[in-house]
Specification:
The complex is a heterodimer of chains A (177) and B (152). Chain A has 177 residues and is α/β, with parallel strands linked by helices. Chain A has a single domain, classed as Glutaredoxin. In chain A, a hairpin with a 5-residue loop joins strand 6 and strand 7. Chain A is elongated. Chain B is mainly alpha-helical and 152 residues long. Chain B folds into two domains: 83 residues, Orthogonal Bundle (Helicase, Ruva Protein, domain 3), CATH 1.10.8.640; 45 residues, no CATH class. In chain B, 63% of the residues lie in helices and 0% in strands. Chain B contains six helices and no strands. Chain B starts with a helix and ends with a helix. Classes of the chains: A alpha/beta (177), B mainly alpha (152). At the A-B interface, helix 4 of A face helix 3 and helix 4 of B.
Amino acid sequence: MLKYLTPLFLFIILAGFLLIGLKLNPKDIPSPLIGRPVPNFSLPLLHFPEKKMASANLKGRVWLLNVWASWCVSCRAEHPLLNQLAKQDVVTIIGLNYKDEPEDAKRWLKMLGNPYNASVMDQDGRMGIDFGVYGVPETFIIDKHGIIRHKHTGPVTADDISDSLLPMVRELQQETI
Amino acid sequence: MKSFYLILLLSIHSVGQAGVESREFNHPEQEKNYYELIDELRCLVCQNQTIADSNADLAKDLRRQVYEMLQQGKSPQDIIDYMLARYGDFVLYKPPLKSKTILLWAGPAIFLLLGLLLLFIYIRKKKSESSVELDQQQHKKIRQLLEQDEDS
């Protein structure tokens, strides 16, 4: 009896592993930056290149950093959601315009709407390396102390915003400095 | 035969590196460090390639970063620490041994031992099956049968 059941058990175990494998997202690599201070940056603004924004300017408030580019197709998918989020005006959204041409980027925002309080330009991808960016779009949540609390790789969905991003933002906004 | 060698040579070349930017190094050791590092760092976009093999934009940026840090006099360990702080253990093809990666390191050995164990059990089973003790009567009968066969 056991002889006949063994292959069945082996198959069930194998199927179990494959099932888990199906649900894993290989792009979802845990970031070592969670719980660490946001990397220092000082980069020109997309719309006012003569002005620079530094990470220190954002201390004391909860903010989202959204990595985007006009060449990024999935960014287009999440863009309407960011526009909606911006309309609710609950959190500062900073755009990191990653390895893009300023003209293309500005045209893109004009066409699809601009949810960002400001976008900084990272044309050679150096700030991207500091943030461990590897799959645009990416979204970070940074708390009032300038600590990275959450990272989302890939386009955010409506569920991601309502179930994880917004609750976390609200919680962090309760914190006192 | 000649064409065979040609194909062999070409195929060896094709596993070479995509990291083809011409770099100038201050001394040979720096060059050696550079190629060792880009061969050990994993490209996070195309996850089964090193940054030496990959042509992804991120791989190019990371190669540039490695080169610049070497030029600044940073040691290979500094550079590995720098990458680890940003991308985590995943960026290394040789991840450090710790509780999270223990299965990765011990896995092959565990499977080898498991295989050997199964093989051992299987062989022993086979052996005990084949060596059936015969009593004298049975021996006699076998001999008879064999002789019969020869006669006919």
